[in-house]
Amino acid sequence: MLGWSPEMFWKATAAEFEMTVEGLSGNVRGGPFISREEVRRIAAEHGVRPSLKGSPNARTIGS
Predict the structure, then answer these.
(1) Domain of life of the organism in this record (predicted)?
(2) Phi–psi pair at 33, nearest 5 degrees
(3) What is the CB neighbour count within 10 angstroms for residue 19?
(4) Looking at the whole model, is its pTM more than 0.90?
């Protein structure tokens, strides 16, 4: 029905599965689409931030 390999099926997220079923049934919800270029632009505007892992004050949650 989906045209997926078993490996692809088991690796898929719930959202990917839902979108596939919606697409095959013709019941597609129009949500916001963000292109790769838009993601790059937003990331460039955000800038480079220092990693929290390198912070001497960093703590592991649950420890």
Answers:
(1) Bacteria
(2) -110, 130
(3) 15
(4) no
Q: Which residues contact 24 (CB under 8 A, 6 or more apart)?
A: 1, 2
Rounded to whole angstroms, the Cα distance separating 44 from 51 reads: 16
Query: Residue 17, Cβ neighbours under 10 Å: how many?
Result: 13
pLDDT in tens, 20-59: 888 888 877 766 677 888 888 988 998 888 887 778 887 7
**Domain boundaries along the sequence of the chain:** 6-47
